[in-house]
């Protein structure tokens, strides 16, 4: 049994999707980010970085894994699925996983802060991060031009990137002119395990919600973003 400590964020949904795809039994422990449960001592004992997601593998002597990319690799290696065993195939998947960890996630996270969460609008910062998101989406579109998935077969690289890219409108970036990326987004969204994973736990806001719904959510969500000490949201 896997204990999953999570919330309804792209990083959290990466792991619930993977657990569903791998058919691993797990129990969900949803943290209230607005109440800063992720910073409480009991959770810091699990993840010293105070962020979701984290897992405890009860079948492996209560082994703890934090950082979403590390969790994906651990689960794939545990099951022998979603990550090739050969060195070249494994490297291809890990390259695109690191592309998400080092690029897509941080840039979209910063776009969300400056476009959605900060009360004041700093347009140069918004333009910078939305522009970098757009560039990274174009890289994905190019890779998907001649490939059904990012690194050969469907893998943890697709799960990681998809969980973020699907929320592109929340970052204020459109992808309507990127046909290969759109095809990939829809192909993965149609998978039953993915549909279940993105509702574990369910998001409190539809990322395509109306401006008024989004405004109300953002006002409450600002409590989750420690503006004074951290430049990015938890997730």
UniProtKB/TrEMBL annotation:
Q: Superkingdom, according to UniProt?
A: Bacteria
Q: Which UniProt keywords apply?
A: Oxidoreductase
InterPro entries (alphabetical): Glutathione-S-Trfase_C-like, Glutathione-S-Trfase_C_sf, Glutathione_S-Trfase, Glutathione_S-Trfase_N, GST_C, Thioredoxin-like_sf
**Residues annotated as region Disordered?**
195-215
Q: Where is the GST C-terminal domain?
A: 86-205
Tell me one GO molecular function of this protein. Answer: oxidoreductase activity
Record's keyword annotation contains Oxidoreductase: yes
What CDD domains is this protein classified in?
Answer: GST_C_YfcG_like, GST_N_Ure2p_like
Q: Which residues form the signal peptide?
A: none
Which E.C. number(s) belong to this protein? 1.8.4.-
User: Which residue ranges does the record assign to the GST N-terminal domain?
Assistant: 1-83
The family line of this record is:
Belongs to the GST superfamily.
What's the protein name? Disulfide-bond oxidoreductase YfcG
């Amino acid at each position: 049994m896997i204990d999953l400590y999570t919330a309804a964020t792209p990083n959290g949904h990466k792991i619930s999707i993977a657990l569903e795809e791998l058919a691993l039994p797990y129990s969900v422990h949803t943290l209230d980010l607005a109440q800063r449960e992720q910073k409480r001592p009991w959770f810091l004992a699990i993840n010293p970085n105070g962020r979701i997601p984290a897992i405890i593998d009860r079948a492996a002597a209560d082994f703890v894994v934090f950082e979403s990319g590390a969790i994906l690799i651990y689960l794939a290696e545990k099951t022998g699925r979603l990550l090739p065993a050969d060195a070249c195939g494994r490297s291809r998947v890990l390259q695109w996983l690191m592309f998400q960890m080092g690029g897509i996630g941080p840039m979209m996270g910063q776009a969300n802060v400056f476009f959605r969460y900060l009360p004041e609008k700093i347009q140069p910062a918004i333009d910078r991060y939305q522009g970098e998101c757009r560039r990274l989406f174009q890289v994905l579109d190019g890779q998907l031009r001649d490939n059904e998935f990012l690194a050969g077969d469907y893998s943890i690289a697709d799960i990681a990137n998809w969980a973020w890219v699907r929320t592109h409108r929340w970052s204020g970036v459109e992808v309507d002119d990127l046909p290969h990326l759109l095809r990939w987004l829809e192909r993965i969204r149609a998978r039953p395990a993915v549909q279940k994973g993105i509702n574990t736990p369910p998001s409190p806001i539809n990322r395509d919600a109306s401006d008024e719904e989004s405004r109300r959510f953002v006002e409450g969500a600002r409590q989750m973003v420690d503006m004074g000490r951290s430049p990015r949201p938890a997730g």
